[in-house]
Design brief:
A hairpin with a 5-residue loop joins β4 and β5. Helix content is 31%, strand content 27%. It is of the alpha/beta class. It is globular and about 55 Å long. The model has no long low-confidence stretch (mean pLDDT 97). The structure holds ribulose-5-phosphate. Ribulose-5-phosphate binds next to α2 and α4. GO terms for molecular function: ribose-5-phosphate isomerase activity. Pfam families: Rib_5-P_isom_A (PF06026). It is an enzyme of class 5 (isomerase).
Length: 225
C-alpha cells in the first residue's frame, strides 16, 4: 500500500470511531470512504455495534454489502446522525469542493440529512482558496450546451466530463461539467449564481456544511472542529 493509501486508511479508521451503536450513518463516496466502510464492517463484526447506512453512490452501496454494513433508505429514515465523506478541496473555513467521483448530488442530500458532517481527507486536499480543482457541477442532459454556456459567463471554461468517449452519466442520469475557476474568492456567492442557472441540478460546493475535518499526514491523524 502506498503512503497516500495508508493516509486514507488511517483517516477512514479514525472516522469509523466517531460512529456509535444505533446510529444512522450517511456514507459518502470515493477511495477514502472505501476505508471508512471497511472499518465500519470490522467494528460491526468485532464489537457487534448495530448501525444502518445510506450510501451516496451505487459503488458505496456495493462496498457496504461487501463489508457487511446494513443499509437503509430515505423511505424508512428521514434524518441521519452523522454523514462521513471525502472531499476534493477543503478551505480554512471548511468550505468544500466535492464531486470528483461524480456523486455530489446524493452526497449533498446525505450531508443535509445529517446532524453532523465529518470530512475525511489527506493533507493534499487542504487549500487556502478553493478552485485549483475544477469544480464539478451536475447538469441536466437536456440543453447541456446552453447550461455550460451560462456557467462560462461566471468566469471559467467548463468541460463536459467524458467516459469512454461519451458524456459521463451520473447515478441520477445527469452529466457533470467540470469548471476550472482557479481561485474562488467567495464560494457562497458562486454557489448562489450557479444554482440560479436552469439546467444546473447541483453544485460541488458544500457551503457551511462540514462540522469536523479529519486530516491524515505523515505525522498521523488530526481532528479539526
Ligand atoms: C465523490 C467525492 C469524493 O468524496 C471526492 O472526490 C474525494 O474522493 P477520494 O477520497 O477518492 O479522494 O466528492 O463525488
Amino acid at each position: 500500500m502506498n503512503t497516500q493509501e495508508q493516509l486514507k486508511k488511517a483517516v477512514g479508521e479514525k472516522a469509523a470511531s466517531f460512529v456509535q451503536d444505533g446510529m444512522k450513518v450517511g456514507l459518502g463516496s470515493g477511495s477514502t470512504v472505501y476505508w471508512l466502510v471497511h472499518a465500519l464492517g470490522e467494528r460491526i463484526k468485532e464489537e457487534g455495534i448495530q448501525i444502518e447506512g445510506i450510501p451516496s453512490s451505487i459503488q458505496t452501496g456495493a462496498w457496504a454489502k461487501e463489508f457487511g454494513v446494513p443499509l437503509t433508505n430515505f423511505a424508512e429514515t428521514k434524518e441521519l446522525d452523522i454523514t462521513i465523506d471525502g472531499a476534493d478541496e477543503v478551505d480554512p473555513d471548511f468550505q468544500l469542493i466535492k464531486g470528483g467521483g461524480a456523486a455530489l448530488f446524493r452526497e449533498k442530500i446525505i450531508a443535509q440529512a445529517a446532524e453532523k458532517l465529518l470530512i475525511i481527507v489527506d493533507e493534499s486536499k487542504m487549500v487556502n482558496y478553493l478552485g485549483a480543482y475544477a469544480l464539478p457541477v451536475e447538469i441536466l442532459p437536456f440543453a447541456w450546451e446552453r447550461t455550460v454556456h451560462e456557467i462560462k459567463k461566471l468566469g471559467c471554461e467548463p468541460e463536459l466530463r467524458m467516459k469512454d468517449g461519451e458524456p459521463l452519466v451520473t447515478d441520477n442520469g445527469n452529466f457533470i461539467a467540470d469548471c476550472p475557476f482557479e481561485k474562488i474568492e467567495d464560494p457562497a456567492d458562486l454557489d448562489r449564481k450557479l444554482q440560479a442557472i436552469a439546467g444546473v441540478v447541483e453544485t460541488g460546493l458544500f457551503i457551511n456544511m462540514a462540522d469536523t475535518v479529519i486530516i491524515g499526514n505523515s505525522e498521523g491523524v488530526t481532528v479539526k472542529n
